[in-house]
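Dear colleagues,

I hope this message finds you well. In preparation for our joint manuscript, I am sending the Sirohydrochlorin chelatase (Streptomyces bluensis) sequence together with its predicted structure, so that both groups work from identical material. I would be grateful if you could confirm receipt.
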Amino acid sequence: MTTRLSLVTPDGTRRPAPPPALVLVAHGSRDPRTLATVHALIDRVRELRPGLPVHLGHIELNEPLLPDTLAALGAPRALGDQEAAGAVLVPLLLSRGYHVKQDIPRMAAASGVRARFATPLGPHALLVDTLYERLVEAGWHTPTTGAERRSSGVVLAAAGSRDPDAAVDTRRTAELLAERLGVPVLPAYASAAAPTVPEAVRALAARGRHLVAVASYFTAPGRFATECADAAPWIAAAPLGAHPAMARLVLHRYDEAARVPAGATAPALATA
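The corresponding structure tokens are as follows:
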């Protein structure tokens, strides 16, 4: 437990307050590539912010589960001064939905840890930077002639959710990516929402856009990302992964939330 003496140095000056720990909250997956990608992203975050305690907790399917991570953080012998600072939970999720609104706050409340809640990663300009670079890696080149622009389009393939706020967030990312690319970008979903990737491809083709790329709006490889890529009529970009911009975005969301009181959620989603 933190004491007043522990916050004072031997010469009588006050120690700087420790920062809250960053807990990256991943969904979890049976695909081993997902866990490897998450660990690579955490390594990048630690490189960018040396000295910041960074932990991982999963909502399901992988260890450590979030309740176990929070239980370890709540142990005074593990935290010391960090106990008073608590933790900022940063969802490795791209939009609002049940996990962000219900699961993560419920698990945090049960843990007793002083928690602040960051907003999901999207929408944000850093995500658009990552999506753009993944498309370029896959073979995308910005259309330069009027004919190329009229024949090109992109499908933004996302996981999908029944929560209408998730669709709002994904559509906003599609709008930002369209502004960046200069061609239409249609959101599409692997489950729980419409349209599917093949439906979005057909919708673009009906508008005369036959050169269609699929942008993978997934944090890591997995079944949904693979199925969406297989439906691409042309090129399919890799998932967002451990791109450097993703690590910067995780820390940006952490910094936003660290400025609000414990138990609160960071302000409304920022797009830039």
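For the figure legend, we might mention the following. Confidence is low (pLDDT under 50) at residues 1-5, 77-83. Residues 164-181 form the longest helix (18 residues).

With kind regards,
E.M.
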